[in-house]
Amino acid sequence: MIDAHQHFWKYDPVNYSWIDENMQAIRQDFLPENLGKLLHYHGFKGSVLIQVNQDEAENEWFLKLAEENAFIKGIVGWVNLKAANLDERLNYYHQKPAIKGFRHIVQAEPDDFLLNTEFVQGVEKLKNFDFTYDILIFERQLKSALHFIRKLPENKLIIDHIAKPDIKNKSLSRWSNYMKEIARQENVLVKISGMVTETSYHNWQKEDFFIYLDHVLNCFGTKRILYGSDWPVCLVSATYEEQLDIIESYFDQLSQTEKADIFGENAKRFYNLY
Fold first, then answer.
1. What's the 3-state SS for 80-139?
2. With DSSP H G I counted as helix, E B as strand and the rest as coil, what are the percentages for the chain, rounded to 5?
């Protein structure tokens, strides 16, 4: 079993200014010693460590953590995908086996950010190194994401947090229509992660998520879905156990093989975790 989406940080109010007053629970350090035993207790053999800051210095810190902690099976870092020296930087990271791919905080960018030609060309270069790209967006950015994805048919792409639908307001139709279209692109996978943070914090029931999970399962199938906890961000609205229970409860009726794919095998294949 692999937790395909988790973070570490040493908290400070400048670099982590996005952690607002409503997120007091995560205004502290979160390090490997806080997660390792938790993963082991729930039967996970490893995790994929995902970028937080848009700074290559974080990549170096993550590489050091991966050397020191065997449960970190892969890293999704950050690199300036519009930089003139991008090829040089990708060559550098290609020499670091723990680096599996990259991500940009697109959710904090204008809604048409993914239509930027330089950015698309930068992401396209990732395929030459077998690097993945994590798409982090809000529901309102799905239209741009669909155009972006269609331009990159040979890249390994994955949508984080099921594209953050507005679960709090039970919004469905716009999100579901775009996700159905995106799922037609067979090079795109999706992470079942980050859903509890799109609710009124701690004010949810498991069943609130099932209509979204129905749609993702129907569109993407069990071979293109990955589980991720989004720990420690999930803690603003749920414990590790609570967010995991949502997913395990929903997928309980699947076969053992299908559950093995969602909770680990798909992550191994997508991120080359062998």
1. CCCCCCHHHHHHHHHCCCCEEEEEECHHHCCCCHHHCHHHHHHHHHHHHHCCEEEECCCH
2. 50, 15, 35
- 19's tokens: 């952690």
CA distances from 189 to 33, 63, 90 (A): 30, 25, 22
Q: Which residue from 103, 124, 113, 30 is spatially nearest to 271, judged by alpha carbons?
A: 103
Q: What distance lies between CA 39 and its chain's CA centroid?
A: 17
Beta strands in 130-216 (DSSP E): 132-135, 156-159, 188-192
Q: Are 122 and 82 in contact (CB under 8 A)?
A: yes
User: What CATH number labels 2-271?
Assistant: 3.20.20.140
Query: Pairing between strand 188-192 and 156-159?
Result: parallel
Threshold 0.90, pTM exceeds: yes
Structure tokens, 254: 């699947």
Output the six-digit token pair for 116: 């930027």
CA dihedral (98, 150, 186, 222) positive or negative: positive
Q: How far apart are CA 231 and CA 256, in angstroms?
A: 25
DSSP one-letter string for 231-252: BTGGGGT--HHHHHHHHHHHGG
CB 81 within 8 A of CB 119: yes
Q: Dump pLDDT digits (tens) for 60-119.
A: 999 999 999 999 999 999 999 999 999 999 999 999 999 999 999 999 999 999 999 999
Distance CA(209)–CA(153), nearest Å, equals: 30
